[in-house]
Amino acid sequence: MPRKKKAHQEELLDLFKEPGEFSVSEPESEEETDELKPQTVSELTERLQHLLRDNFASVFVVGEISNFVRQSSGHYYFSLKDENTQISAVMFRYTNCRLKFMPENGMLVVVRGKVDIYPPSGRYQVICEDMEPCGLGAKQLQLEALKKKLEEEGLTSEDRKRPLPIFPKTIGFVTSASGSVLRDVKNVLFRRFPCRLVFAPALVQGEDAPASIIAAIENCNLYNEQHPDTPIDVLIVGRGGGSMEDLWCFNDEGVARAIAASKIPTVSAVGHETDWTVADLVADLRAPTPSAAAELVVQPLSDWQGTVLDLSERLNDAVTDELDDRCEAVMTLLKHYALREPTHIVETLMQKVDDLDMRFKREMDVKLERYDSKLKNYKSVLEAIGPLAVLKRGYAILEDEAGEAITSAEALKKKARFSVEMSDGSVKAKVLDEQ
């Protein structure tokens, strides 16, 4: 160990020794006088800061995050603790921007950094330069964040998933050209139902796999635009089993969005039954294996033939039953009284019409007699109070040339012409003299 570093360590240990009694005595030399000179808090903190920086410039610390705070400046402040103690920690924005996950309280992490002292409070802390989760890998955290993001956008919702066509004529398959998966799927499809298979080769493992899968999905949708008469009815995207690393390309965000954006109903078939990927969440249907996907896409021809025969028998039975019911109804009608004695029914109805006619005439005669009597009474009253009755008693009605009644002597002028209406007729008159 270098002498300078060893001296710093010894000095650091001396600073933390148990305090004891001391007395101020005359210095034996000038050098000893400087060492025993009282120090300010800042001077002591600075000395400790240099010692920590020199001896703890690179440390790895495992602990649980607590008291996590993300300041508006973007810096992270938190504590690392274990069962017995805790230490303050800080991770500045220019460093934490490289993290692929968001630290949270309760997360067990391992950090790499250096130990330093924050002078204003004299608190020692770990300045973190890197951080990795323990137990839960960074990839897994990244995957959980992607799932949450897609869920918030509604891409994993069951409401947006489309049903598969019942009778697909053309099936697309995005997978690797090598391996037995393509052969297995072809065997299942062609054995179960006569259909066409459009193969879209893609890399399904490695760094270049996501871009290859996305291109294959887009090519299948482009195929439908170019072949509207024979389009792909359903698309299978998948591969055989493998490790989590082998299947990781199906957790890519771009692959998930390509599947969700596909205009063709899509079945995700990745790995084995226990393997789940983001592609399974956004696809219209998830199949545990590629072979199972082929079984879900098409039903066996024999099953459809059996279904058709069963429906045919049920239809024949239903038609036979309906015909029997209608024949029975016709026979019942033939036995009805109306069909057996139609003349008697008509004669009965004719008699009812005559009865109604006679009742109508009788009631009309009674009403006419009643109205005639009332009219005669009204006539008698009118004749008694009418002007003709007055004229018969010797009175007369004078009217001018316009036919207006003359009711005063003032209305008559000299030589005025008028008429005199009496009970048996009228005469013309002229005023000879004016009073």
Polypeptide structure, described:
This protein is of the alpha/beta class and 435 residues long. Among the domains are: 3-8 and 33-136, Nucleic acid-binding proteins (OB fold (Dihydrolipoamide Acetyltransferase, E2P), Beta Barrel); 167-299, Succinyl-CoA synthetase domains (Rossmann fold); 391-430, no CATH class. The chain has helices spanning 3-15, 30-35, 41-55, 93-96, 138-152, 181-192, 209-226, 244-247, 253-261, 278-282, 290-297, 301-334, 337-340, 342-385, 387-392, and strands at residues 59-70, 76-81, 86-91, 108-118, 123-133, 170-175, 196-201, 234-239, 266-270, 285-286, 397-400, 417-422, 425-430. It has a five-stranded mixed β-barrel. Strand 1 (59-70) and strand 2 form a beta hairpin. It starts with a helix and ends in a 5-residue tail after the last strand.
